[in-house]
Amino acid sequence: MISKKGLALVLENLLLAAVVRAWYTRNRTVQIIPVGMLGSRSVDDLNQGLRPKDDALHFYDNRFYWEWWYFDAHFDDGHRCVLELQYPNLTNMLAKECAMLFNVYTPDGREYNNIVPFPQSLWRASAETCDVAIGDNTIQGYYPEYRVKFKHDGLACDLLFENLLPGWTRGTGEVMFGRPEKHQVFGWVVAQPRARVSGTLTVDGVEREVTGLGYHDHNWGSGFLPLYVSHWIWGRLSTDRLTMIFADISTTRRCGSIRIPLVFLALDDRIVLESSRADCVASEYMKDSRGFQVYPSRVDFSFGERDVSGDLHFAVLRELEMVNTLEEKLPGWLVRGLGNIVAGPAYYRFLSSYQGWVKVGDINLELDGETHWEYMVMSLKRGKIPSPGPKMPV
Predict the structure, then answer these.
(1) Is 168 a domain residue?
(2) What is the pTM of this model?
């Protein structure tokens, strides 16, 4: 039987534990992952597709709400384009603006990178289906096709994106941070993991008919994301048979510095895997073209679940885009100072080589080619090479 002294010691420790837990609860954010987020569903369930509302407006009534609809396409003649409508203007969230992103890359090496601000009065978006517009720049559609019409200076496009795979998302599509009543979320749906693209692309006023492959996804969020997300890697690749999306999201110390890896894989016209049983290793960090931040020039990504596995190696060939997210709002000396002391947020898109293999059942695919991937820094200091944190348990 426990003594009075022993009982007093137990009660003292329990009280101390309660105090520590109360402090921890007040001062630390806990991640809440929606049901169905972690385990990979069956192939039949993976190919059920999305509802119209999944790709519609996800409005949250707070000052940190944001949302964007993203498309990209790689055309048979060598042109590439990246298209996006944003609310608010993500490069200047303090301004009462929305924005259109319209980037074009030509086969002869010309680059047109445009983030075009518009007044909020020109913004509209449906909460029932994907029907988004900033003035005359529009995105409309639902499975199996979407239409995108943009125009800016000498650039224009009128493109039809036709699904070659069903739409997909993980669980409810949202990761929630902290207490549910705070509605601090990060959402993501992939309405078109792979699409056939056709239509017209105008560059420097010259219109051309184009065909190729494309992709469309949709992100939204609320809450001040840099409190919860430190940095992420996101990319994808497409071959004649394979479609792959990969990501590795790292949370801040406030959220335990947890890494959330993710891989999506489709073979031919069927989705065959969604999994968090993956490992992403970033290495060989180098300074960016402006000497502001550092990014990993090599990413090794491996995964395996059920009868699907793979091992891919990505190496940066060229920095396609770099956005210093503070430089349009603050003087350079202050941006550098904040980067050294607090954080140096930056966004990068790369042209990258890849090589490796993927196995699906008895099918073995050797892979070698070029693709795009991105690196987003939200709360790392300038020049900070992040230490790999623990992976989210699965």
Answers:
(1) yes
(2) 0.85
